[in-house]
Design brief:
The structure is a homodimer of 379-residue chains. Helix content of chain A is 32%, strand content 16%. Chain A is of the alpha/beta class and 379 residues long. In chain A, a hairpin with a 4-residue loop joins strand 9 and strand 10 (117-118).
Chain lengths: 379, 379
């Protein structure tokens, strides 16, 4: 089905910004690049744009393929395309790689024009607020004054929420999926384990591993294995692997069980493809995000000036971004008498469910996107 | 309260076994030591002995102190002592360090008499079944033909269960607390992350770090941090740390939140005190244990010859050894028409609850131990 409605071959573009961006930390990025892709056509009054915000390890490559032989379509290709729930016959969809990433936007592995060397450890820590500000600059660049919708899952959902707070006039709908108004201590703990694994890897060289021709692969492997386990549910792992033995028990520390084989494979693949400095920055952005912090922890007050309509959606088996956390957002919106739809989807796959092609989940998104009527200047 | 009923100063003893122990793997330990402590007095007919089996990082030092100035009593001191739920005025309690450990029983850091060097990587992988066999040898050594009870939490509970299977005549009561008849794929996944962190640490030297005067501290730190998070519940971590900021946000990778400070402290402490080769072996023992494996996964058949009476106890917020897993044991015992009491204790602390002084939990244990009547040769 995905094949029939595929967007086909897409080509990333890069926008260069010579304007300085002042970050939440006080640091300044004097200039930066954002790599992005677009799907569908921007209509005449530029009212049909939808921004997709990515999560921890996502990229600008959200849908379609990079060549006709490409075996790996974009990470949300099951959702976005002609006739798909987010229909590119109707909407103009934008995906970008966030600042600090490692897929083409300015980040720690990019060359710092001032020194001619990779930024490495000198690349600043970028927050969800900073991402949203940089996305607003991209919107200006593309001529989009107001998004029909900003959509994201997990860390991407935090960006959709932040859009509604920072730019209430520029967003008609926020779709906040498998997300949370901030991380719990448990989630921050998992992030800290991942970061410590990376940062104590001797090949990390305090973040300047590029100039040592090194990669902190050990740390990246541990971070990825841990991520994989916690983004799945206990039940999903039970179904996928159970206690299946790989060949036969050898009483060794080699692979004995299939789950170990899977985790090692995923770990190796990730360590070869993701930048460690980007990873630790993405987890920090997650840790820091907490829009209620400036309002004595009162999320209702933090959302007082929001104008967007919301779809908040959670998955029953997601224990890292549980339905309870989504309901906190719903409650704060209702306290402010905002328009919000909430769906709790029964799904076995844990946090990863937001990336999967679940019929009920996709039906909700299709229905929600179908009802968005940008032709009337709604909102 | 603990202080008033303390056992006081205790001194570990070591039993040396010259008999060879054939392990489940087929490897043979030609001779070995077991370090143990005892609390209370063995009665004349040697019917009041209770064996305590430890979990992943436990030791033989279960109760009392090693000197009057000792600030750290044994790990289950809140449970065991004169007048405590497991009353040493009535019972003779034995704690030991399991084979493969690092606190005095033969393990990877022990000197191999055949070579004069630490065993290191050559120390075999020891299973739950092997531990129980070695514990039976210790029981023989102490003149205990039948235990009034074998008690354990977590991995210790697996040993209590295994005692009932391997030595049905030698155990009157099995107390299986916060345990499981085997690990889920999720639990095996967490173990694999911990092992990979240790084994890919360059200071691990394939397990022979002793001769390099090295310690794989980085890996041990990661293993411990991960353990700490998963042995607590999300709620317990929320209560203990929440999102509290340590000093003020610095936008850095240093400690920003209290939860990070706590995890790093625990990590450092553990890396200085626990042997990496022991740790990876303990996790493997957890992975392998699965008494139903030889019975096509049918736990009821695996427990067909059990004679002990059981107390199975779980904690509501324990997500690594959930109440559902305890109920599998209860069901298999009931299928076999065995005597089993089951308690599900409402507790916020997750898996760690089994070590804590919870009033309801301890009342159940007190009541259960009070009812054990070894004077009649019960069982």
């Amino acid at each position: 089905m995905s094949e029939i409605n595929s967007i086909g071959v897409v080509t990333p573009k890069t926008a260069h910004f010579n304007e300085a961006l002042t970050l939440k930390s006080g640091d300044i990025l004097p200039e930066f690049d954002l790599i992005y892709e677009t799907y569908g056509e921007l209509n005449a009054d530029k009212s049909n744009a939808v921004l997709i915000c990515h999560a921890l390890s996502g990229t600008h490559h959200v849908a379609g393929k990079h060549s006709s032989e490409d075996k790996h379509p974009g990470w949300w290709d099951n959702l976005i395309g002609p006739g798909k729930p987010l229909d590119t016959n109707k909407f103009f969809v934008i995906g970008l790689n966030n600042l600090g990433g490692c897929h083409g936007s300015s980040g720690p592995s990019s060359i710092n024009q001032a020194t001619g060397k990779p930024y490495g450890a000198t690349f600043p820590i970028v927050t969800v607020e900073d991402w949203v500000n940089s996305q607003a600059m991209l919107a200006d660049y593309l001529g989009v004054k107001q998004f029909a919708a900003v959509v994201g899952g997990s860390l991407g959902g935090m960006q959709a929420l932040q859009w509604s707070i920072a730019y209430p006039e520029r967003i008609q709908h926020a779709l906040v999926i498998a997300s949370s108004p901030n991380l719990t201590a448990q989630n921050m703990g998992f992030n800290e384990v991942a970061r410590q694994a990376i940062m104590t890897d001797p090949e990390f060289y305090d973040g300047n591993y590029y100039e040592h021709n090194a990669i902190p692969r050990r740390g990246l492997r541990i971070a990825r294995m841990l991520g994989h386990i916690t983004y799945l549910s206990d039940d999903a792992m039970g179904e996928k692997f159970g206690r299946r033995i790989k060949d036969q028990i050898k009483y060794s520390f080699d692979v004995e069980f299939e789950v170990e084989s899977y985790l090692r494979y995923q770990a190796d693949k990730f360590a070869d493809s993701f930048d460690a400095n980007s990873y630790i920055r993405m987890t920090r952005a997650l840790d820091y995000y907490d829009p209620a912090l400036d309002f004595d922890g009162d999320l209702t007050k933090a959302l007082a000036h929001v104008k967007a309509k919301f779809l908040v959606l959670s998955f029953t088996s997601d224990w890292r971004f549980s339905p309870e956390r989504s309901k906190e957002i719903v409650k704060a919106l209702l306290d402010n008498e905002r328009t919000v739809s909430y769906a709790e989807v029964t799904a076995a796959h844990g946090h990863d469910a937001f990336l999967m092609e679940d019929a009920h989940y996709h039906a909700i998104l299709r229905s929600y996107f179908n009802k968005i009527d940008f032709s009337k200047g709604e909102g």
